Amino acid sequence: MNYRRALLICIWVYCLSWSFDYRGEAQSGGTAVQFVFFAVTVASALGTIALGYRRLFALPVGWLTLGWGLYLLSTPLVAWVNGVDFIWFFKNSIPPFLLFTSLCVTQIAAASGLNWRHVLWPMLLASLINVIWKIVYALLIARIPIETVRLELLSPCLPFLMAYLFSGLALSRRVPWLPLIAGAVGTASYALSVTRSAVFILGAAGLGAMLSIWQARRLRLLSHRFLQIKCLHAMAAAGLLAMFGVLGVVAFPLVVDRWVERLFHTAGAAQSSADPSALTRYAETRSFYDLLNQEPLTWIYGKGLGAPYYWDERYTVELVEYTYGHEDEFRAETADVRFPGHSVWTYAVFSGGVLGGISYLLMFAAAVVVAFRAARGLVQVRTWPVELAFLPFNALLAFLSQSLTINPFIERAGGLVLGIVMGFPQFLYTAAWQARRAARAALRPAWSPVAGVPLIPEDPSQNPA
Q1: Crossing angle of helices 344-374/61-81, nearest 10°?
Q2: Could you list the mean pLDDT of each consecutive 10-residue stretch along the chain, which spans 465 residues?
Q3: Of 69, 137, 209, 329, which has the most beta carbons under 10 Å away?
Q4: What pairing do the DSSP bridges indicate for beta strands 454-455 and 446-447?
Q5: Which helix (H) or strand (E) holds 455?
Q6: 185 contacts 132 by C-beta, under 8 angstroms
Q7: Where do the structural domains in the chain lie, given as residue ranges?
Q8: What does the CA dihedral 269, 254, 151, 422 come to, rounded to 10 degrees?
């Protein structure tokens, strides 16, 4: 088996390894199936690194990999200092660890000369499988009633699919059938789960698409005629969305009732001073603040990944009355919480202190800058699809909008897909570098091995014959 084929097998296995992941009990330490998934992921990542370790720190994504790796090295020490149980540290460190391995896998694939398709297609397939599998598992296997199912339906890959939809609608030169299919699957998941924060994710992906059009116009990659065609595509997509929306209302009237309830009969209701979703985040954040204040030094380095916390009791009465119903069960469930919070940023500070919060902030900011600057490579590599050049930037904006209300590191697949999104710009950087190298080689005169003088190519127009 040659190097290229072995590398492709490792990448496909790596991307698909968490496609059938599921969210188990909130306080469980993981199932045997999930440990098998983790073993397959680590084996395929190590296989990729063993094959392409010489290309591991290709710039500029190599800086992201190195920085995030240094942060990960500090997390076991923080957990040990705070006495965090190993099993809980291990479980909560898997998604950040998969972010690191995804960066390694993606930049090795790019620096090895593989085509962007060799990473995008397995990642897109894995994302679609994960979204559909979450719906099947929640409704048919776990048998959660559709009247109550919510977060169990949400896949961490959804922001990636929404960004893929808007990138295709805004920048594809053809009718974006595949982005439309991916967007339809993602929208159905949001609709069934009654997720209001999807508005922010869709808005962020749409904003990214608008910024991408602006940058592409600056680079003279889009014509006025192209923009006119895109307007027609957008109107057609809006028509399709409206048609499927009507069909959804007819097929799932209960889901419509749930949307009406969450939109108009939640915030400010008599039995609750605020939206229950907001109350849970208030209770969680308040406990983070109080726990860090107990030992002021932990504001610097945090409590550690997997450290226990609770939901502040000042919000218990409203939450029990409005959402849970049984106070004893609610207090038992929220007295020793271990999962990584509802927000990337509050949990980053709780688990890693100010240093952890800065690490996350620098990582996301650097990834956004790298993704946006990668588009400049399209000036040298005009054969690249414009929509894929801007896809990482749009996806990162979608993940950032999600990070305030939903932590993508709650599930293993979230770290995997986010790392591939951050590493994907390396393909364009590598292609642009190869284009500049070829251009310089074409302009460089050849030298005679005998006389040591340049061999000037003969101009046929000056040949008398």
Answers
A1: 170
A2: 86 91 57 83 93 86 93 94 92 93 93 89 94 90 79 88 91 84 88 84 90 86 77 77 75 74 59 69 89 92 91 76 61 77 90 94 95 84 84 94 86 91 92 80 60 46 42
A3: 209
A4: antiparallel
A5: strand 454-455
A6: yes
A7: 3-267+338-432
A8: -110
